[in-house]
Structures are given as C-alpha cells and as structure tokens.
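Lab meeting, item 3. Inverse folding demo.
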C-alpha cells in the first residue's frame, strides 16, 4: 500500500519499561510490581524437560537474539533469567501467569499454548525494537509485577480467503505470525469458491489443476499441493493456531462445476469465472455423483487436517431452492462426522437443521432482519454454538472510509472504533451467552493481491477483534484501548507491517 509510517526513529530510547497493562489483548488481571527485570548478555531461557516447553523457548530465543545480539541459550539448568514452566493449575488450556522482578521473568501455564500466549505478552512488554532483525541498543527492560490471564472465549479466529486471490504458503505463514502476536487461535482458510479451487484432491485432480488456474481479474491463480497444505497446518500448529478448512457448498461452486461437467444438472461445464458477483452457482442436489464428490473431498481434506473442525460454507446459495438446500445439508453434515470432524457453517446453516455439536458462523449486520437473527438465536438455544463475525463490525475487507483504496463497502464503512466497540456476549438478541463460542474476523480477497494489502486491511482492526475474543468484558473501554493500540504502531513498523493510520487513534509522532 505504501502507507507505512515514515520518519526517523528517536535518537534515544525511553528507559522506562512498558507497563504490564499496555498489552493487547488486555490481560484478565494485572498487579504492578516495583523493579523491572533487565535482559542482559548473561540471560538464559530456562525450560523444563518437556519438548513443548523447549520449543516455545526456542521460539522466544529466535525473536530475541537478532535484536539484542545476545546468545540467550535455551537450557534446563541454572537460575534466574527467563523461565518457562508447565504446572497443573487453574489457568486452563490457554491461560498463563507472568511474574517479573529484578531476578527474572517466569511464565507459568498448565499447557504449552498458555506458555506461548505468555511469550506474546512478554514480547509486547519489551521495546518495539526487539522485533527487528539487526542488533539494537536496548535496554531490554520488563516491568515488574504479575499478569494472570485466561481467555474469555475459546474461538478467536481469523479467516483468509485464498480463493478470490491465491496467496502462497509463505504469505499465509506471514499472516499466521501476525495473528499469533495477538493470541488468535483459529485460522479459517476459505479454500474454494466460484473464482478458484485451492486444494489438491487426488480423486478429483482437475479441481486444483483447472479449477485453481484463475482468480478474480483473471490472474494465474494457484493451488496448494497436499504437502503445501500440511506445511501451513504444521506452521500454524507451531504458533498454536488450529486450521479450519472450508469447502463452500452447495453455492460458491463454479470452480468445481467448471472442472467436472458431470457435477452440473445439465451435464455441461460452465466457463471458469473471474468476476466478483455471487449466488449464481450450485451443485446438483439431485445427482448421486454430487455426494460421491462431497464424500471424496471431505475424506481427503479431513485426513490432512488434525484440527477438530471442517467448514461447509453454506452461504449465498441463491440458486438452490430451500428444499434442495435442506436436503443437501441433511446428506452432507453426516459425512463430516463420518470422517471425525465437527461441522461449521455460515449462519444460513440454521435454515436447515444443524448437526448435533455444529457451529454456525453469524455474518449478518446490525440491520439484519429480526426474523433472521431469531432463527440463529433459536438454533443457539437448541444447542448450536455461535461464532460471531458480523460483517459491519469485523469483516476486515470492508473499507475504513469511502476513500479507502482497497476493500468493499456493501456492509458499510468500518472504522477502527466500530470494529472494536461491541460486546460479543450481548450482540445477538435471544442467544444465550453460553452459546457464544467466540469471534472470527474474515478477510475476503476480491480486492487483495499481496501481503501489504492484507496487512493494510487487517491492521489496526485485527488486534481489537483479538481483544474482544480474549479479554474480560470488564476491560472493554475504547478510550483506554485506543491508547494501547497507538503504542503498537512502532512494533508494526519494526516488523514491516503495513497499516492504516486511522484518525480515530492517537498515533505517536515520529
């Protein structure tokens, strides 16, 4: 985008450490202490004997070594320094405790994911220059005190649409690293749509080779081999993100229909599609081969995906009658269960009967009809979990203002405050708070072609979505949040992250 902040770095760095309550997402509990810990040439990263703890320690060392210039050995011996330890306790699968004082920093968690999230807080407590890949002057101070932290919701997601435009494995990894900094724990990959099919399926090879050969605007497209997809899954797992793959059906299927004529009711394959209109395509609900196709795709994708979920899409099936849609979902949801996964669908799934344990992803607007909202709320009262992705709040592809050069505006303009200033627990009338599983920020890619453009639309809105998913409702305050958000700008610059300088945020001047 070329909209990064310009200006020379200050000649001397502030020596006061970042306060513990400056972290995003806001921690559940902060108790300030007196004296800070200083990382020095003699600092060690101490781990217990487990492989997972060592892996988190090596990850931390990889971040700290280039900017500090220190060796920072990862060891299970010695005292002081930075200590990572697993200990059974009440912090849950993702919570952690961070204790800091003159003699060292200790991060304690019940599970490796908690240690990893604690490391993200530690990163944010260090000067932004810690993110650079060349030696910086320091000093490297961590404020004294204690953070005790555990997430509000178990689903804190981000969706990346790789179908409208294809993004390489390296581009997806870059986004994963950015998500991890803010404790996002789900990466939803939108792998198929009218404009491109992005995952190799051995039993239907033309899906990827032909259906994946284009994208919006007619570019070369692309697809992931099974090895590519496994590498994305592996890398996400190393950052404690679970990959949720999506094959959208019965609509949004032109790439598949173009690849195999027999999937069409009339037996005629349509041409490949490079536009952006939606709602015109549908699998042939009455044909047996449709369900052979669905079974093969789900079976192969489930075998590649260690996570618990598989997303069936189900939105904007405007070319499928209501009766056909219900019949299709009744046949297809059990296939997901057969291969050991839990169904996720866009909230239109509630127009059929969601499978037991299924999740519905709500993408309506503040102004969506009361009837549609009540249908989703009724499903929630009946046991369907809800993931909230309201399009006029946290669709990251919506323009910030009318003159934003990227993005769409069909759901409205979504400035930073609007994306942050709502409560997931009270958002959907009639839905019990216990049904809300969390939040997810989708990033659709009709107008996005590279990492700079992804980042410009995701930042600075994404950290706010992460905070809605992680932090207690009691910490939610725009006026305090915007100050913490502004302080992230220097970190994004150090990481080379492009971002939108919203006038709603009091960014530091160079």
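The presenter then showed the designed sequence:
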């Amino acid at each position: 985008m070329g909209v990064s902040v310009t200006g020379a770095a200050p000649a001397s760095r502030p020596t006061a450490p970042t306060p513990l309550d400056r972290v995003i997402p806001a921690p559940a509990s902060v108790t300030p202490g007196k004296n800070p810990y200083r990382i020095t040439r003699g600092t060690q990263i101490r781990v217990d004997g487990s492989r997972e703890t060592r892996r988190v320690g090596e990850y931390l060392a990889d971040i700290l070594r280039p900017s500090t210039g220190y060796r920072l050995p990862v060891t299970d011996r010695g005292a002081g320094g930075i200590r990572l330890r697993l200990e059974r306790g009440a912090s849950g699968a993702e919570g952690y405790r961070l204790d800091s004082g003159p003699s060292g920093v200790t991060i304690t968690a019940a599970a490796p994911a908690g240690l990893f999230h604690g490391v993200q807080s530690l990163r944010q407590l260090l000067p932004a220059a810690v993110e650079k890949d060349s030696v910086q002057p320091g000093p490297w101070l961590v404020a004294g005190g204690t953070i005790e932290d555990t997430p509000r919701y178990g689903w804190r997601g981000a969706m990346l649409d790789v179908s409208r435009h294809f993004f390489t494995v390296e581009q997806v990894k870059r986004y994963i690293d950015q998500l991890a900094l803010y404790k996002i724990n789900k990466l939803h990959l939108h792998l198929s749509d009218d404009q491109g099919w992005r995952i190799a399926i051995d039993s239907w090879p033309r899906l990827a080779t032909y259906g994946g050969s284009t994208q919006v605007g007619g570019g070369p497209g692309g697809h992931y081999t099974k090895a590519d997809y496994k590498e994305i899954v592996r890398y996400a797992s190393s950052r404690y993100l679970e990959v949720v793959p999506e094959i959208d059906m019965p609509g949004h299927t032109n790439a598949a229909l173009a690849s195999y004529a027999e999937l069409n009711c009339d037996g005629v394959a349509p041409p490949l599609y490079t536009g952006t209109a939606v709602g015109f395509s549908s699998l042939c609900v009455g044909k047996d081969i449709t369900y052979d196709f669905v079974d093969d795709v789900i079976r192969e994708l489930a075998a590649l995906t260690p996570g618990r979920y598989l997303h069936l899409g189900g939105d904007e099936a405007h070319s499928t009658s209501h009766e056909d849609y219900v019949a299709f979902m009744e046949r297809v949801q059990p296939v997901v269960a057969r291969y050991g996964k839990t169904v996720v669908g866009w909230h239109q799934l509630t127009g059929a009967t969601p499978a037991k344990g299924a999740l519905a992803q709500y993408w309506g607007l503040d102004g969506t009809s009361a009837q549609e909202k009540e249908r989703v709320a009724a499903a929630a009262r009946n046991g369907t979990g809800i993931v909230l992705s309201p399009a006029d709040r946290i669709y990251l592809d919506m323009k910030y203002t009318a003159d934003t050069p990227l993005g769409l505006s069909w759901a409205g303009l979504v400035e930073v405050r609007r994306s942050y200033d709502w409560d997931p627990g009270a958002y959907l009338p009639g839905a019990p708070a216990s049904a809300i599983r969390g939040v997810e920020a989708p990033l659709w890619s009709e107008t996005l072609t590279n990492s700079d453009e992804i980042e410009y639309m995701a930042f600075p809105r994404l950290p706010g979505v992460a905070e809605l998913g992680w932090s207690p409702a009691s910490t939610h305050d725009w006026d305090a949040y915007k100050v913490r958000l502004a302080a992230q700008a220097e970190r994004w610059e150090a990481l080379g992250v492009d971002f939108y300088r919203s006038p709603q945020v009091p960014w530091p001047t160079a």
